[in-house]
Amino acid sequence: MSRLTPFRALRPAPPVAPEVSSVPYDVVSADEARVLAQGHPLSFLRVTRSEIELPAGTDPYSAAVYQRARANFERLKREAPLETDSEPTLYLYRLRMGDHVQTGVAGAFSVDEYESDGIKKHEKTRRAKEDDRTRHIVELRAQTGVVFLTYRASRDVDAVVERVAAGAPLYDFVAGDGVAHTVWRAGDRDRDALVAAFATVPALYIADGHHRAASAWRARGELGGGAAGHPPAPGAGDFNTFLAVAFPHDQMQILPYHRVVRDLGLRDAAALRAELERRFAPVADAPQPSVPGRFSIYLERRWTTHVLPVPASGSAVARLDCALLQELVLGPLLGIDDPRTDPRIDFVGGIRGTAELERRVDSGRAAIAFALHPVTVGDLLAVSDAGEVMPPKSTWFEPKLRDGLLIHEI
User: How far is it, in rounded angstroms, from Cα 83 to Cα 78?
Assistant: First the structure.
């Protein structure tokens, strides 16, 4: 079963929701966040990336950053204002990007299930990023980052979602990037029906937000679940749940995650291209590979596409294009032995497209770019079910949830 818990959300008053909400804290740099927040005093980036209000060069992990986040959070509560629901409830959160639509259930999910792997993972977390968001949660006494979950689609859940979404929404606006965000509150009957329906869902999977979930788990340990000296915030939930939106697997959209490499090591461009053509059959294709089992390279202002030898058997991870590229190309030909730590490699999310790869190579910031076909939701579920870990930067989920619309105080 999957435990779904109603909670009393702290959220912006409907008229100011578009102005308060912001992109997730971890998809923009400090410079990008500063530009987005300019002229928007209620932007939630002032809470999640509070270093943008401090002098340039401020250590983003300094005490001053978390203190400013707390002060900005309290100011936002007063000035936006932010409101707390009178009763614990659940919400629907719909994302629309072009023709793509997905509707998820927003609520509080079990930290115990996360700890016991009842909520399945496919990614390793980095300690520094965990430290940052754990400290943010502890300082604010609130979970402000939303975990993105998925589950194998359930007719029982779908039926309740359809009923709730037929009503009037709480929020309904289009953000600056063109993505529409619509949120509904579930009434008492539908709230209870969603809890019951999720109890029949065999497993939940983290799609995006491994660090947010890990930080909620660590914050519970640091705060002691309401131990002396840490009384629950007024109207708060508890330390045993974390804020998330769960989407059915058949509505998810994954875009590719590409790679760029700063230099060619000891090879020159002509020799590397010749070696790639010798090892991997070249085929006619677009810069973005049209099917799995292919990768495209951008080298000296020219795209070529090559076929990967996908093994007929092996682990779920070993058959992924990104894993094969690492094993057969990036490691042996370019000396990128550990893509998690090697400073010569960088990753470009699919929403930026292959034009960003061309820009980086043409500008000299990178010597070569690799474009991949996206992994599928089925790949993610298979890897998670097998207890395996995907290579770094394997999935880019789009569209993304906004920060600041639903907040879980603890």
Answer: 9
As a whole number of angstroms, the distance between CA 168 and CA 292 comes to: 41
The residue ranges of every structural domain in the chain are: 4-253+399-409, 257-373
Which of 154-158, 302-306, 332-336, 347-351 has the lowest average pLDDT? 347-351
What are the b/e assignments for 272-294, b being 16+ CB within 10 Å? bbeebeeebeeeebebbbeebeb
Mean pLDDT of the chain: 94
pLDDT band at 352 (very low <50, low <70, confident <90, very high): confident
- Nearest Cα residue to 265 out of 257, 275, 255: 275
How many CB atoms within 10 Å of residue 84?
Answer: 15
* Helices 63-79, 127-140: crossing angle, 10 deg rounding: 40
C-alpha distances out from residue 303 to 155, 289, 299, 402, Å: 44, 11, 7, 35
Residue 361 phi, psi dihedral angles, 5° rounding: -70, -45
Place of tokens 């959209």: 253
Rounded Cα distance, 116 and 113, in Å: 5
Report the run of H or E that residue 107 belongs to, with start and end: strand 100-110
Alpha helices in 185-237 (DSSP H): 188-198, 210-223
pLDDT, tens digit, 9 for 90 and up, residues 21-80? 999 999 899 999 999 999 999 999 999 999 999 998 899 999 999 999 999 999 999 999
- Tell me 16's DSSP state: G
Tokens 């992994």 belong to: 375
